[in-house]
Structure formats: structure tokens, C-alpha cells
């Protein structure tokens, strides 16, 4: 009970903060994942089943009160980003934010929002570049295996699981902080969200899919509790 109360208070606090700073908020207390649309040519829209399946997993395996599992997307230039406490970025290609979008994303993160970015092989260089626009004085820092995100619900003592092979590099998780709060979490060389997608998309074995859902749960639980 304490667990769900803390999560609900976190979501309500985010909604209240946005309502006070941006007028009215259309957000409910129910949790949902929104995929961020972006310019630059990258396929921000790939594997839309991923978030749907992740939300289904949350409904079955946690006490988080989840909105109807379906694909939610949000335009980076829209005020609608302030209706979602958890936004996801993924894709294979280039990402590009305009100066106004940079300012909007900075405001979103400073207001308590959380961005989870998963490199789907090909967006690494542009994602790092665009984060530098939002946080010119900060670098993405690799999180130690002892970080709470690896133990927030399920235990991953060795850090991120390896879901897909790309360049035969170890999986890495990086973060950016605002006033001591992790507000951006970036996974590289693992493809967590591919493991969430329908089996027909990537033919991941069941044990790898389960690892991806468990790590996804950790990321979401951590974002709501901190």
C-alpha cells in the first residue's frame, strides 16, 4: 500500500506542478508512456507495440495504476508533453531539436518530467549532441551498477541486461541530473524496448523479453519514486 501511495503522490505532484505553471492540465493520475516525436529524419515511431506491451506488463506485475495500454505519442513542440510524467525517445536515425524545442524540453525536465531514451542502433551520436543543447554544461554520465534504478523493483546487480547484439559492446546506462534528480536515462548497446515489442518483430527468446520487461519496470518505478 505504501508503494502505490508513493507512486500516486508522485504522479499527482507532477500534475499539480504543471497545472500551476502551464494553466490547465489534461493529465489523469493514471500512468502512461508517451513516445516523443522529433525532427531530423529518425524513425521515432518504430515498434509501436513496445510501450503497449510494457504497460500491459506493468498492469500484471506491479501495483501501478496504468492507463489503457495503447500507443501514445506526443509532439516535442506541443504543450501536451506536460501531460506526461514519463516520455520515451527511441529510433535508428538522426534526432534534431529546434531552439524552441530545446527550451520546452528543458522546462519539461525542470518541472519534474522524466525522459527515457533507448538507442535502437543509430541514434547515439545525434542524441548525445541534442542533449548537449538542452544541458550545455552537463554530460551524460554512466550510472554505476549500484544505482537504485537497477534495484527499484527487480534486481540487476550487474547493470543492464543485453537484449540485442549490435557492435558486441557491453550495455551501458547513462544519466543527466537536475538538482540531484535523475531526469534523463539513456540506454546504449542493449535495445531494452525492442524486447518489449511483439515477438514477431524481433524474435527475441522469452528469457530476453522477460529481462527487458523487468528492466523497463525498474526504469518506470524509479522515475515515479524519485
What order do the helices and strands follow? HEHEEHEHEEEHHH
* Helix content range: 25-40%
Q: What strand line-up does the widest sheet have?
A: 2-1-3-4-7-6-5
CATH architecture tag: 3-Layer(aba) Sandwich
Give me the Rg, rounded.
Answer: 16 Å
Strand content: 15-25%
So what's the CATH class?
Alpha Beta
> What is the approximate shape?
globular
Which stretches are low in confidence, meaning pLDDT under 50 for 5 or more residues running?
A: 1-13, 15-27
Largest sheet: 7 strands, mixed
Question: Which structural class best describes the helix and strand composition?
Answer: alpha/beta
CATH fold name, please? Rossmann fold
The fourth-level CATH homologous superfamily is: Domain of unknown function DUF4159
The tally of strands reads 7
Features:
38% helix, 7 helices, Rossmann fold, 7 strands, 226 residues, single chain, seven-stranded mixed sheet
In short:
By secondary structure, this protein is α/β, with parallel strands linked by helices. Helices cover 38% and strands 16% of the residues.
